[in-house]
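Our consortium's second objective concerns turning raw sequence data into structural hypotheses that experimental partners can test. To show how far this objective has progressed, the report includes one record in full. It was chosen at random from the queue rather than selected for favorable results. The single chain below, 104 residues long, was entered without modification.
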Amino acid sequence: MSIPERYLQGSATILVSFYNKNETQRIEFLSYLQKNKFDTEIVEKDFEKYKFLWININSKSIHHGLIGCSMCEPLGNHAVTMEEFKEIFEIFKKYVNKKDLLEF
C-alpha cells in the first residue's frame, strides 16, 4: 500500500498541529504514538522541524505535514492540537476489538 493510500484508508486521517509546542511536549507526544503502536519511523528523523502531522487512526500511519500541502481532507476539515488528538484517539481506542458496528 502506498503512503497516500495509507492516509486515505477509512477517512480517518487527523491533522495534528504542533504550533507553540516545545521540544519536551513534542517528544512526549511521539512517545505516546509509539506506545500506541503508530508507525513513527517516517517522522522520527527531524521531528522538531514539523508543524503538523497527518495521523490515520485506522492504519496507524503518520506523515509529516507542511503548510499549504494537503494529503487529504482531515477528519472534521480542521487541524487539532496534540491534546485533542489524544482525546479523540482514546475514544476510538475503546472500540478497536468490537465485532459489531453498534456494540458499545
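The partners drew two points from this record. The longest helix spans residues 23-35. The chain has one domain: 3-93. Both points have been shared with the crystallography group to help prioritize constructs.
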